[in-house]
Amino acid sequence: MSIMFNGIGVSKGIAIGQAYLFYREQPEVPEYTIDESRLDNEIERFYRARNRAQQQLVDIKEKISSDVPQDITQFIDTNLLMLDDPILCEDTIKHLKQRSCNAEWALQAQCDRLVKIFDDMDDPYLKTRKDDIIHVVQRIQRCLASDNEDMPVSEEEQLKGRIIIADDLTPADTLLMQHQKIAGFITEYGGPLSHTAILARNLGIPAIIGVHNAKQLIQASEKLVLDGHRGMIIANADRRTISHFRGLKKDEKLRRKNLFDLKNKPTITTDKHKIILLGNIDRPADVRTLRQFDHTGVGLYRTEMLFIHRNEYPTEEEQFDTYRRALRALKGHPLTIRTSDLGADKELEDSLQHGPLAHNPAMGLRAIRRCLKEPRQFMRQLRAILRAGAYGPVCMMIPMLTCVSELDQTFELIEQAKNELKKQKIRFDPNLQIGAMIEVPAAALSAHTFAEKLDFLSIGTNDLIQYTLALDRIDDEVSYLYKPLHPSVLKLIDLTLQAGTSAGIPVSMCGEMASDSQYTRLLLGMGLKCFSVQANSLLDIKHIINHSNLNKLVPKVSELLKLAHVNDIECGVDALNREFS
Ligand code: PEP
Ligand code: MG
């Protein structure tokens, strides 16, 4: 019998495949006694699992492309070293022999001992190494658990074409799994604007989140249909249902193929208004994906990937090299580098944290607040961006400004960085354009003051919606409050657009709202002239823009903006989309 259940669809697309239950937390570890005469067999079983774990990692390492973030390759290398470490293997065998117990239990006992040693250490860096031990042990445990099953050897083969069911995934998990060619993923927790959800959309992986108890509801290897558009999962679907969804998948593929006629064509409305269409990236390698859809520039380079999942800050040189790589790949198109927006959903490793974790990190020391608190680290990034500017069209963008004094402090640091570079005779762009993200209601309400001091503004709707509607963007329990068409949100967008017009500076939008084609006509009618979107949405958005007429949209949209209720605005936008599609 098939069962259907729902979650929050965060990345469109249909996936059909077998479920793969992904355990980050401790899988159940069985304990039983092994007869003396069978101890050698049990030891052999342990080494077989260890070797298999090793082979899986070697396979992943060989197959991932060279431009995956450094933290992923480092993570694999450390895990490989640990798999070879006698302290893990030989001590496990000793325990197994002494206690005459099964390999899983002996390994767990050794893992607990090592974790305790790491916990007792004072050095915060070494403390975090315990996570590596846990990862490695869990990998061997999974191999032990599947020892008697007819499972393929390489993890890539295990994951290829599968739909991953996990409690939650980190952005690094998501990247690694994309390289392993998963069909889609379902998580129990997370919000539609979490970095992982955004990454899934960017990578084109169909995904559903917020399916509580998914790991209880879905069995390993069960055949699933995942519809990321509707947020629907069908487990154990019958043949007719599968063939229906295969048909939908085929139609979507064809629709997207036809969109490729727009590749590299101008983005212009039917009444000849030129619109700028840019892409969002997380890493230089994403430029390649962007170019598969369109040859365009970058309106938002989220630099956090350079900082997260590692135990030391990147040096100025590493940052400079990374930005230059992105610039080279863009072949003359502009690159907007956002200074680091760390904290909340893009958190650093524990070893780089200053104090105890904040109770309310989204409201805490995030983004520019954290940068200003750590001026030495910030200086490295400012210098790296200024230097990259000497090699191509680079702009710098400051996230999460709340008050003008933060901007003034940032300007002072930029000046200081320029003076240092000048003294050291290092090339940089003295006229680098500096803009800011408007993503806090306070900044939108004061957008005119910011606009007077800056070269451009960019609206970050993900945070603007989070802070305006007081909903945690990574908490699926409140995702029902995510209403981009809430009149308050629209008012703040409108104020920002007006501030840009009065100051004569461009305003773009780089939040997810810009990537969602159901809002394109509304935003055009509100006066937005620059969209920075997910690579995957580029051609969808271009298609709508190139079939829109601003003269017709503007009066309709100004009527919509007078409405007081979100439901009425939603109906109005639906009607607008139907009328002009
Ligand atoms: C935003 O807030 O809209 C945005 C683009 O920034 P991020 O999602 O990286 O916080
Ligand atoms: Mg933001």
N-to-C CA distance: 39 Å
Structural class by secondary-structure content? alpha/beta
The major β-sheet equals: 8 strands, mixed
* Largest sheet: spatial strand order: 1-8-7-3-4-5-6-2
Produce a short descriptive summary.
The protein is α/β, with parallel strands linked by helices and 581 residues long. It has 3 domains: 3-23 and 158-259, Glucose Oxidase, domain 1 (3-Layer(bba) Sandwich); 36-144, PtsI, HPr-binding domain (Enzyme I, Chain A, domain 2); 263-580, Phosphoenolpyruvate-binding domains (TIM Barrel). The chain has helices at residues 39-63, 70-84, 86-99, 103-119, 124-145, 155-159, 171-179, 195-203, 214-217, 239-259, 286-293, 316-330, 367-373, 375-388, 404-423, 441-445, 447-453, 461-468, 487-503, 512-515, 520-526, 538-546, 550-560, 566-580, and strands at 3-6, 8-11, 14-21, 163-166, 184-187, 207-209, 223-227, 232-235, 276-281, 298-302, 335-338, 394-398, 433-438, 456-459, 507-509, 530-533.
Characterization of the model:
The protein is of the alpha/beta class and 581 residues long. The protein has 3 domains: 3-23 and 158-259, Phosphohistidine domain (Glucose Oxidase, domain 1), CATH 3.50.30.10; 36-144, Enzyme I, Chain A, domain 2 (Orthogonal Bundle), CATH 1.10.274.10; 263-580, Phosphoenolpyruvate-binding domains (TIM Barrel, Alpha-Beta Barrel), CATH 3.20.20.60. Helices cover 50% and strands 13% of the residues. The protein has 24 helices and 16 strands. The chain has helices at residues 39-63, 70-84, 86-99, 103-119, 124-145, 155-159, 171-179, 195-203, 214-217, 239-259, 286-293, 316-330, 367-373, 375-388, 404-423, 441-445, 447-453, 461-468, 487-503, 512-515, 520-526, 538-546, 550-560, 566-580, and strands at residues 3-6, 8-11, 14-21, 163-166, 184-187, 207-209, 223-227, 232-235, 276-281, 298-302, 335-338, 394-398, 433-438, 456-459, 507-509, 530-533. It has an 8-stranded mixed beta sheet with strand order 1-8-7-3-4-5-6-2. Helix 1 (39-63) runs antiparallel to helix 3, helix 4 runs antiparallel to helix 5 and helix 23 runs antiparallel to helix 24. The longest helix has 25 residues, at 39-63. The model has no long low-confidence stretch (mean pLDDT 89). Residues 341, 399, 439, 460, 462-463 line the site of magnesium ion.
